[in-house]
Every structure is written in structure tokens, then in C-alpha cells.
UniProtKB/TrEMBL annotation, chains A, B:
Residues 47-327 form the Aminotransferase class V domain. Its cofactor is pyridoxal 5'-phosphate. Residues 1-35 are annotated as: Disordered. Keywords: Aminotransferase, Pyridoxal phosphate, Transferase. This is Class V aminotransferase. Belongs to the class-V pyridoxal-phosphate-dependent aminotransferase family. GO terms for biological process: glycine biosynthetic process, by transamination of glyoxylate. GO terms for molecular function: alanine-glyoxylate transaminase activity; L-serine-pyruvate transaminase activity. Signal peptide: none annotated. InterPro entries: Aminotrans_V_dom, PyrdxlP-dep_Trfase, PyrdxlP-dep_Trfase_major, PyrdxlP-dep_Trfase_small, SP_NH2Trfase/AEP_transaminase. It comes from Natrialba aegyptia DSM 13077.
Length: 403, 403
């Protein structure tokens, strides 16, 4: 029934100035954004078909290739957050009737499954407990059993703080069975060793708001020629028009034809964030994350806490720390936010209530942030009655940083 | 085959500082962004689950309701550009087997059709030539013939500069046939009279980079309770996980559950852009667009050019101007860009080569921009040998502005 809006809607809302609190972001992302990236976002816009924007697009593609360690022509920022890049990968590569093998060892394997089903695919699983990586032998078995068209794995599981080792072994096994490999690199890109070409990954997607320290809104995606051939040879259109890579190819490829209005400001931002990666050097950046997160890890272990992941698959960008007995994890996070303006996060799914998730990503991977989070966490845990030694934690971090 | 990236990729790209040209944006969007919105985008981030961000989300929803003229609870910014909001609307409301009636009188009706098909729907059409609105009698006939589940129309056709009049007549006809109505309001929201509730529109989507003068990246969407009931009662999941409104409801509704990382900075931006709407007043803003675009129209007519749309469906936010004989439209646009740093656009589809598309949107709907575009267009046309009277154009604009 047609009707006038209520008096409430009729009146212009009295919404005040934007004054968010000044947080230190040490959770699972977003991380603190580099001031140069924030400045880039305040740059006046040019049109999305402006010749000068085409040059900016070229820059971003070149910088993304460098950061992914790939020569892939099909390397673009997708117009949306990391999940949009994820759905662009799965929704284009998985065709109706295809089978996709996905992992069960974290939150994001489940999301892969949901996206693959919506794309019209069958989903089969390879199991590992939350908090552990996939075992290459299990992956080989699953490939032999199910003969999938596509195999997806999570390189850096944000929900569990686990780094998947043995990637070349996984991709070799998949290729032995003619399966294309899609890697979730949301929390590894720009922070943890990732070599798309050398490791023979066919498709990788990522988020900008983790180790690239760029606000979410334009998200890295790369596809090998072989993967893109499958996409371009599809019998049926992908189910999303917005994320259809054969159409996006017209805009990001030679033709520069209008598809949708690119998120210009987010492209400015990721360009600047990737420029910072190039200036630092990708290998130096991986080393910095390991060094800084190592100091964080030394601090939490020094105060008497336990890491959830063993050292061999510790994920420097996302540190999963066991919640000590007798403490409510939600209360700790709330206190840190309220008393210290500091964001860390609780666990999810099978690890709900068991872990804290402490990020150490991009511009947040700095000594001041690491010292602050170790200090604040120790103080809050002690104040809530946990058996920890905050002083020993800070000392361990201090020593690790001065090594 | 696993391989090292080329030497080119191995080397960090030497990409220089971001220094785009200083354009005046009078094309079909993006429009010039208000300085306050650009400043909001340089604000440091809080997390997407931060209690302070929840308040910001509430503000945005309230301001969007005001701007759409609706009480709809389901009013959110979608995490992507306008096409993402469009696909969220169509991909959720259209179920496999549903029939959607779409218009053929412009570029965006064709996009609606493509999205509806990908959602599993059947598409039927109601015809009108490019450059004309739909005739309510034709819509009523098409509704009677096809009995569609969903009827889509474009309120402000960016490709043709046509405003669809008689919206309440169209929605009443659709509701007589129990069809839900989806309106494309990308180029009308915040600039041209639009009354979602009073006009009985069930679903409306929009873009932020037109009359809201906000960078693209978070895009308005509103659904009536009845439309949302259809979405929540679907037998099959929508084909996009990213745009699944039943999942987004968990984040934007009471629960505030994690779905995907919101594009925080784009939410900051649209909040500020909508705050500017509320400060100005929505009806005053519509009046400003009509007044400024009227001066623009007076100028182009004054110099001897012809508008493509008759006055009764002239679209103030997007002025379609006939290309005068003997002039190449592409050359004119290129000259304006090169000599005046000024963006306007050519025609698309059936009107390719026939029209210039000159926007007058949001922060670009100011006297300085209007005077500049009329002056520059007259000068460039004259220099390219067209029969125009640039002086008379400027005089007509000046008079209209001083009325």
C-alpha cells in the first residue's frame, strides 16, 4: 500500500560528525591503515574510463603481480571486499556439475563449500581438525577418491591462526589429478611467504585489509592462463554478472570497455598500499612480519600463555593464543577495547572460547603495536585473575625486538 | 608447471606517487566528491564489529531511509558499486523459475535481464525506444500478457537521460498482477524526486557516485517487508553468497553477526555524503538539481543545441544533448578532457554517436561547474567547426542562474 513515510523518516536525521574512537587494530583485520594510504583515499576522483585511470589500473596490476609473485596476466583488484574476490574465484572457475574439494579445518573452508554449491558445484571434503593444517597424504587420498575438478585450500586460516605448509606438494597432487587449485591467501598476501607461480597455484584471492594495511573495498585476485581458459570456455554464464571475469576482462584487459564503475578511491588506496610493499621489498616484508610477530609470540609465551598452533605451522600474521583457565575471552576483548582502545578477537567455530586471535599485519606489525598488545593483554588478564606474569611477557618481547 | 616468476615480476615495480589530473566531473558519474566526504575517507579505521561501527551503521541506515523516503527496515549500503546493489536486488528477489519483466529502453534494462537470467529467472520485455520512457499502457499490457513475478524499471536512465514519469501508475499496475517492483534509482537518488514509500516501490537500488557525490564502493539498497519476506522464504539459496540478503541480515539486523568485512572507509564516506543530504534537506536538494541542471540546459539550448529528451521526461541529473551535425562526439569529449580537464561522455547503444551525456549531480551541481561546462563545450564545438553560438549559451546560463 502506497503511503507517506512516517514523521520520523520525513524529518532529516540529526547525525553528528564522524568521530570514531582511535583504535589500535591487532585483531584478524582490518589492520591499522598506513597514513599514506589514508591520504591517497582523500584524493579527488577521476572517471573510471579516464585515460589517467587506465594508467593507474596498469600500475595496480603490475604491483599485484609483484606481491603475488606471479606473471599471471589475469591479476586484478575485484570491486568488493575479500569475500567478493573469493566468490569471483569460485563462481567463475566452478561450473555447474563440477566437483570441488574443500578443507574442513577452519571457517573459510566452509565458506568455500557454500560458494561452490551456489555456483552449481558438488562439494567433497578433506578433513583436518580446526587448528591444524591439511596433511598432504589426506589431500592425495581425497583427490584419488573424488577426482575433483577444483581443489581449494586456505593458505593462512584466519579463524585458527594456522599456516598451511607443503603448498607445492598439495598443488602437485592436485595437478596429477587434473584439478585446478584455488588458494585463499587473504591473510598471507604481503605478510607471509607466498609464491603463486613457484608453488604452481592456479587461482589465488586475497583481502587488502590484512597484511597490505589497506581499507577493504578492492581485493586481489590472480588466475593462471589455464584457469582463465576454463573460465572463458564455460558453457553457461557465471551466476554473478557483477563478478563475471569474462566481462571484467573487457575492462581490465586490452579493450578497457565499461563494465561497472570501479571503486576508484579503493583502487587509489590499494595502489598506494602496494607501492609500500614494493618500496619495502616483498621478502623483507615477510621477514618483518616474522620478526615482529615473533616478538609478540615471545611476549605471550613469556607471560605464561600458550600458542594454539605448533611452531611449524604458526601463522605470523594471525596469532592464535590459548585462553587461560578461568578467564572469559569475550570479557578480555571487551576490556582491551574499553580500557586500551585495542582490538583483538575471540575464536570462531570449533575454537570458540578457546583462543584469542591477535593479528600482526602490515602497518600494525610495528614494535609500538607489539609492545602495546603484549602489555595490555598481560595487564587485563592479571586484573581478571588469570595466572600470568605480565612483566615476564614484556621482557620477552623487549628482548626479541632488540635481537 | 611450477616456475619462478620472470625477472620483471621479481623486481619491485618503480611506480610513482599518485598524481591523477584535477578533473571537473560532469559525465554520467562519478561526480565531483564533496571535500567533507574525501576527508571522511582519510579517517583511521575501526573494526567492522567494533561497537562504535555498529552506531555508524545505524546512522547510515537512518540517513538512507530519509534519502530514499522510506520507512523500510531493510535499508543498507551493499559492499560494492551500484551494480553490486543491483545484483543484490535481482539475485535475491528473483528465484529460479520466476519471471521478470524488464524494459528495453536503455542500457540498464539489458543489464537487469542478464542478472535475472543468471539468477535462474525467465525474462520478458516491455518495449520503448532508447530515449523514451515506458508507457504505462504498454506496461499494463505486458503485465497482463506475461503475468511476471517481478517487474523492473529504470527511474533515471543514465544511458539516455530519461526520467521515467508516472511511477505510481506503473507500481499500481504491477501490484494488480501481484508482481513486486524493483526500481533502478542509481542516477535519481539524492538528485531527482524519488519517493519509495509513497510511490509503492518494493525494492530500490542506487549508486553513491552520482547525485550523492560519494566515491563508489558502498551502494544503497532498500526492500519492503513484503519483498524481504519473499527473499527469506526462498526455497533455494541465492546464487551469490556475498550478496545473500538473508546472511547480510545477520550483520545489518539485530544480531550484528560477522558475514564479511564491511568496506569501512566507504561506509564512513556514504555516512558523510548522506549527512550532507540531510543538512541540505532532500526536497531542497531535488530543487537545486533542477535549478542548476536547468541553467545547464538553458545554456546548451541557448548555443543552438537540442536536448534529446522532451521536457516532460528530462532528467536533470543526466542531460542528453544531441550531437550537432558534422562533429565527432568522441573528439569533443577528448578535447574537453585534454584542454579543460573536463569530463562529459558520449552515448551508448542505440544512441551511440547521437548524444553527449552531461551530468549535473550532487557536488557537481554548482554554478561554477555549470558555467564551466557550458563555456567549454561551446568553445570546443566552435573550434571543431560546429554551428553553435557559444556566447548565447553562456548568456542563457547566466540568466537562468540569476533568476
Amino acid at each position: 500500500m502506497a503511503q507517506e513515510p512516517s514523521i520520523e523518516t520525513d524529518r532529516a536525521p540529526a547525525v553528528g560528525e564522524l568521530t570514531p574512537p582511535d583504535r589500535t587494530l591487532m585483531g584478524p583485520g582490518p589492520s591499522d591503515v598506513h597514513p599514506r594510504v589514508r591520504r591517497a583515499m582523500s584524493t579527488p576522483l577521476v572517471g573510471h574510463l579516464d585515460p589517467s585511470f587506465v594508467e593507474i589500473m596498469d600500475d595496480v596490476q603490475e604491483l599485484l603481480r609483484y606481491t603475488f609473485r606471479t606473471d599471471n596476466e589475469w591479476t586484478i583488484p575485484v570491486s568488493g571486499t575479500g569475500s567478493a574476490a573469493m566468490e569471483a574465484a569460485i563462481g567463475n572457475v566452478v561450473e555447474p556439475g563440477d566437483t570441488m574439494l574443500v578443507p574442513t579445518n577452519g571457517y573459510f573452508g566452509g565458506r568455500m563449500a557454500s560458494m561452490a554449491r551456489r555456483a552449481g558445484g558438488e562439494v567433497v571434503e578433506v578433513d583436518a581438525p580446526w587448528g591444524e593444517p591439511l596433511d598432504p597424504a589426506d589431500v592425495a587420498d581425497a583427490l584419488a577418491t573424488h577426482d575433483p575438478d577444483v581443489f581449494g585450500f586456505v593458505h593462512a586460516e584466519t579463524s585458527t591462526g594456522v599456516r598451511q605448509p607443503d603448498v607445492p606438494e598439495l598443488t602437485a597432487a592436485a595437478h596429477d589429478h587434473d584439478a585446478l587449485v584455488i588458494a585463499d591467501t587473504v591473510t598471507s598476501i604481503g605478510g607471509v611467504e607466498l609464491r603463486v607461480d613457484e608453488w604452481d597455484i592456479d587461482v589465488a584471492y586475497a583481502g587488502p585489509q590484512k597484511c597490505l594495511s589497506c581499507p577493504p573495498g578492492a581485493s586481489p585476485l590472480t588466475l593462471s592462463d589455464e584457469a582463465m581458459e576454463k573460465v572463458l570456455a564455460r558453457e553457461e554464464d557465471p551466476r554473478s554478472w557483477y563478478l563475471d571475469l569474462s566481462l571484467l576482462e573487457g575492462y581490465w584487459g586490452e579493450e578497457r570497455a565499461y563494465h561497472h564503475t570501479a571503486p576508484i578511491t579503493n583502487v587509489y588506496a590499494i595502489r598506494e598500499a602496494l607501492r609500500l610493499v614494493a618500496e619495502e621489498g616483498i621478502e623483507e616484508r615477510w621477514a618483518r612480519h616474522e620478526r615482529l610477530a615473533g616478538a609478540l609470540k615471545a611476549g605471550v609465551e613469556g607471560m605464561g600463555l600458550e600458542m594454539n598452533a605448533p611452531d611449524e605451522f604458526w601463522l605470523p600474521s594471525l596469532n592464535a593464543v590459548r585462553v587461560p583457565d578461568g578467564v572469559d575471552d569475550g570479557e578480555v576483548c571487551a576490556e582491551l577495547l574499553e580500557r586500551y582502545d585495542l582490538e583483538i578477537a575471540s575464536g570462531l567455530g570449533d575454537l570458540d572460547g578457546d583462543i584469542f586471535r591477535i593479528g600482526c599485519m602490515g602497518y600494525s606489525a610495528r614494535p609500538e603495536n607489539v609492545i602495546y598488545v603484549v602489555t595490555a593483554l598481560g595487564d587485563v588478564l592479571e586484573s581478571l585473575g588469570a595466572t600470568v606474569d605480565p612483566g615476564a611477557g614484556v621482557t620477552a618481547t623487549r628482548r626479541a625486538l632488540s635481537e
